Amino acid sequence: MEQQSLFRNRTFLFLFIGSFLALIGYSMFFMTTTWFVISDLGSASSLGIILIAITVPRILMMAFGGVLADKFKKTTIMFSTSSIQGVLLVIIFLLNNANQLTFLYLIILGCIFGTLDAFSGPAGTSLIPKIVQKNQIKQANAMIQGLGQIGFIIGPIISGSVMEFGGVTSGYLASSIIVLLSAFFMFPPFLKEGPVVNTIKQTPFKDLIDGFSYVKASRFLMTGILILITLNFFAFGAISIAIPILVETYGGTPINLSYIEVALGIGMIVSTAIIGIIKIRRRGLTSIAGLIATLIVAIAFSQIPNLYVLTALAFLIGFTMTFVFIPFFTSAQEDTDPRIMGRVMSIVFLAMNGFDPLAYASVTLLVSRGFDIQLVILSFSIVGFIIAITILWRGETFRDYKSNY
């Protein structure tokens, strides 16, 4: 493969644009559904059930998504999932337009939507090493992750604006158009992918076991996954669910909530831009340092009762946590056997996303039992900090890892 700028790499640009549009469409669907359940169905308690129906199947099926990514062309998987998701959104739009969209329909369609997302994530991540040079993987990840954060900010803004003038029906229509447009950019002839590397014929279950065995045999991957679990359970997941509770506790308004959420996203965008520019050789040490820094900020976040200071701290949390997962993510892509890339990436994705719902449930349960939200976040952060220090002390293989790129 000839060395060329990522901006001149047509295949990467199409993946870049398609992934961006898919994230915008997904976040628009999420927000439109949230508003529909609260306003039209008039049942705030039903919202949790629908969000579980969307997210839990995605988590459960993610490992099998990696198996599929190793057996078939990743571009075909991404195009197919985006196309079907677009069609599902069109169905939701038509049902809502006919006043036939019910709680049961949303549960079923949301479950299918989330399941499909479990297949597109590992496919897209494991495609990157096939279409860029190894010394460009970190930059490619930073660009896609950074744009993804922008997408999660832009999506709700677009969705809210559309619903303000056209209602929920228009919100679903707009999200379906954007998701179908993302499928267009992921059309396999546009993303000229090489042949499938894994040609071993065996059962999907055996493929899955091989993936877990490969990860288990690597101290670097096992430590990195523990770091991601610590980040997403004790820091990011816990704080994400705590933010609206803290805003209400401190007498804030929805605008204060939006400021904090946007600050978190901007912090991630700024740090991904920096990571995309600078060379990071000590990837393992950088990830550990990022985790420690995130947890220190989280401790401060739990103790300061000022919404404006919390907004600044949210920026720092977003800024530091990106230094945790992008360096590890990139090194895993660089060093993993291409034959098993999809399965490894799906396990990494599972560590990144699978523990958020557990954090949400744990924090919510503790607060409902009468524990102060500040004490809960402080406790989570301290436990995470102890784990991070232990990894720094005992994780020599991960700590001393150096990249050649």
TrEMBL record:
Transmembrane regions: 12-38, 44-69, 76-95, 101-119, 140-159, 171-191, 220-247, 259-278, 285-304, 310-332, 344-367, 373-393
Keyword Glycosyltransferase: no
Topology with respect to the bilayer: Multi-pass membrane protein
UniProt KW keywords: Cell membrane, Membrane, Transmembrane, Transmembrane helix, Transport
MF-aspect GO terms: transmembrane transporter activity
Entry GO terms, CC: plasma membrane
Subcellular location: Cell membrane
Gene3D superfamilies per UniProt: MFS general substrate transporter like domains (1.20.1250.20)
Superkingdom in the source lineage: Bacteria
Residues of the Major facilitator superfamily (MFS) profile domain: 11-396
Principal location class: membrane
Name assigned to this protein: MFS transporter
Organism: Salipaludibacillus agaradhaerens (Bacillus agaradhaerens)
